[in-house]
Structure formats: C-alpha cells, structure tokens
Amino acid sequence: MLQSNVKPAEGKLGILVVGCGAVSTTFMTGVLMARKGLAKPVGSMTQYDKIRVGKGSDKKYLSYSEIVPLADLKDIVFGTWDVYPQNAYQAAMYAEVLKEKDINPVREELEKIVPMKAAFDKNYAKRLDGDNVKDCATRWDMVEALRQDIREFKAANHCARIVVIWSASTEIYVPYNEQYHGSLAQLEAAMKANDREHVAPSMCYAYAALMEGAPFIMGAPNTTVDIPAMWELAEKTKLPICGKDFKTGQTLVKSGFAPIFSTRCLGVNGWFSTNILGNRDGLVLDEPANFHTKEVSKLSTLETILKAEEQPDLYGDIYHKVRINYYPPRNDNKESWDNIDIFGWMEYPMQIKINFLCRDSILAAPLLLDLCLLSDLAARAGKFGIQRFLSFFLKSPMHDFTKGEQAVNNLYQQYTMLKNAIREMGGYEADEEID
Question: Which regions span the lipid bilayer (predicted)?
C-alpha cells in the first residue's frame, strides 16, 4: 500500500444545485431520507459498490469509504438556484416523482431549501417562464452575483467546502468558437462585453463556482466546462471539473450494450433510439434548439465504442438516429425504444429491440450524489482539471478535443478508470489496464 495524501472530509459539505426540479428534489429528498434511515440510496456507487484492492492472499473487497475519506451524508447541506421560487418541498410535490409518504418525513428540511434567484436568459430555454431571476445587466454581472451567492451560502451554513452541480434544463446549443472559448482571457472579455451569443448562463455558474473554490459538475449536455477557457480556469484555481450530461436511461443501456458487438466482432448497420418524456426536461427539449444540444450528446456515444477506423467492415456505415418526444401524460416516467440492426457471419442480418420503461429522476439522483462526493474527494486529493475517472456517470464525457483525444464511452472501460482512481487516491496500486 502506498501513501495517501487525501485531506480528510472534515466539516460540512455544501452542495449547491442549479435547478430545483424533478431530478434535484428527488436527489435532495433521497439523501435526507437516507441519513434518517428511512430510505436506501440504491444506485449509488459510493454507498453500495465495493472495489478489490490487493492481490492473491492480500485481496479484499472494500467500500469506497473504506478506501478513501468520503463526506458523510449527515454532513451535507443543500442549496439551490431556480427560476421558480417554490421551495424544495413544494417543487418535489409538484414534480410527482416521489410519493407524498416518501417526502413528508423530511418536509421541514425541504421547506428550508428556498431557491436563490437564477442567473437566467430566456433565449437559452424559451419554454421556461419563471420570475425568480436575477436582474443582471451583463454576463459579468451574473458571475459576480453568483459568486456572492456562493460566499453567503457557505458562511450562513458554516460549510467547510462547496460543490456546485448543474441539474437544470438543457440550454440551446452553443458551438465551440475558438475566438471566444479558446482561452480564459477571451472568455472573460466576452463576459464583460455581455456577449450573450457565445457565453451561456451555465458558463457563468461554472466560472463563479471555480473562482469561489468549488468543483463544478455539468449534468446537462450544455457547452459549459468542455472548452479550453474553462480548462485553463480549472488549472489556475487547482479545482476539479467534470461533465457532461447525466448518463441515466437509454445512453446507459447503449454504453453497456454496444461493447457486446465490438467484443464479439459483430457488425452494426443501424441504431435507432427514440424516447417519450413528460417532465420539465421534456418540455424544454421540445424546443428544437434545445433538443439539438441533447442530440449531439447522445449521438457521440456509439462512435467511440464501435470505431469505424479500426473495423470498417463492421462499423464503417452505421446509421445512428436519436429522437426525444415530449409526452406530458408520462411525466417523469420516461420510455425509450432502441432498434438495433446487426449482422453476423457472411453478413446475414439480425435485429435487437430494447424497450426501457424507466424513471428518469430515480436513475439520475444517485448520479448526483456520487458526482458530488467524488468531485469533493478529488479536490481534497489535489486533483484538478478534467476528471476523466468520472466518465462512468456521464453521457458525453469531457476530453481534450484540441489534442485529438477521444472520450471513453465504453461502460466497462469507464468502470476500470473509476476503480483505479479510487484505488490510487486510497494509496493502492492501479492494477487493471484500459485497452
């Protein structure tokens, strides 16, 4: 065993969530219930998974908290921003993800979580009409107001550390533009010039978080921390960043199922994915400009698993289509269908159909917990910049595209990266190669 230099998880951990909707309130309610022993945090790797450390007679399987010092659930304090002023209890009831009997035991705690005014631009989410919004003249004013929020929350709640996580709606697509996103100086200049086209509100949250010493997690497919300007800021502030887009339903299946074909050397002609969803996320994604952001994220998964350049006979001509349809009757109970056209020996065709009836927020909530606890851990371990080991939880993992790097989307390779990072931070040797 090697020496571990991770600082202990002492004091309160403030988790500031951007967005107080279905996913956020399911996450917060679940944590509050779990620490009272009234619910189980099923789906959370940090709470349930065990990792092998050592080999041979020294082999043992330990939970994450036995390997590294994770923040305890009882030390978490929640805060949030949202365009709607309803407190977390009201928002949880409105979302109708959880039953009232699973919310009421922590009603008093949820009622105290009142959203701060959001840094919001309606052009980025036209379907939202909330009025709990900051009155900021420029993007730079947004940054300053958010920094003040973080400072005040940290002081008022006596937090030792803060993590900021985006769990709000998907913004319209912002293409990477080197002139504005290529360096920190360029991004800051665009913020001060109030460039609303190239600076999304989410970028203001990320900038403010990093400047206030808080790791930032992007849980939507927005262009936010996946730009060189933010990588430079993360290096400057020595803080972890990760993203993007929580990997919950269809893409989780895709990242776990596609490796079957590459491992077995079976060919793929086409993969058609469609979804129906009725919550606020579905409403926002019903706007074509917002859907395009999600589409880019979901389409990126297959090409890094089924590599056309390595196996042109098998994956050289895949037709990949993704659709999301807003369907209010389903609310948070998303349904996805995947039709996969494959071929085998002598190119004879076959088909696979997958129908996943999932609960979007139920799958997302444990991801928020794990990403927050592991980002806090990474910060205490002195890790900064892109946290590739957190790719396991994300749909479109960050990578340095300026150097030709490809994201790792294979679920099993991602799991190896996760386990090895935990081992190394805990003072154990990494012992599984990523091919």
Answer: 13-34
Indicate the DSSP class of residue 3.
-
Helix, strand or coil for residue 220?
coil
Domain boundary among 303, 328, 357: 357
Counts for the chain of helices (H) and strands (E), in that order: 16, 13
User: Which residue has 């262009």 as its token pair?
Assistant: 223
Number of structural domains found in the chain:
2
User: What are the tokens at 406?
Assistant: 């490809």
> Cβ-count burial of 182 within 10 angstroms (0-12 exposed, 13-18 middle, 19+ buried)?
middle
Q: Residue 232's domain is classified under what CATH number?
A: 3.40.50.720
Same structural domain, 237 and 264:
no
360-414 pLDDT per residue, tens:
999 999 999 999 999 999 999 999 999 999 999 999 999 999 999 989 999 999 9
- Report DSSP state, residue 21: S
Cα–Cα distance between 429 and 375 in angstroms, integer? 21
Residue ranges making up the domain that contains 281? 250-357
In a domain, 178, yes or no: yes
- Tokens (6 digits) for 139: 């993007």
Residues 198 and 340 in one domain: no
Instruction: With respect to residue 3, please indicate whether it lies within any of the assigned structural domains.
Output: no
Residues 352 and 376 grouped into a single domain: no
The one-character DSSP state at 27 is: H
Alpha-carbon span 133 to 22, nearest angstrom: 19
Which of 357, 385, 408 corresponds to the end of one domain? 357
Largest CA distance in the chain: 68
Q: Which two tokens stand for residue 146?
A: 């958010």
**Same domain assignment for residues 27 and 175:** yes
The torsion of the CA quartet 338, 246, 257, 276, rounded to 10 degrees, works out to -10
Question: How far is Cα 260 from Cα 281, in angstroms, rounded to an integer?
Answer: 31
Tokens of 328: 């209010």
pTM: 0.93
Query: How does pLDDT run across 42-98, given as a tens digit for each residue?
Result: 999 999 999 999 888 889 999 999 999 999 999 999 999 999 999 999 999 999 999
For the chain, give the mean pLDDT: 94
- Residue that the structure tokens 């659930």 belong to: 73
Q: How far is CA 193 from CA 137, 199, 210, 276, in A?
A: 11, 10, 21, 40
User: How far is residue 297's CA from residue 67's CA, in Å, rounded to a whole number?
Assistant: 33
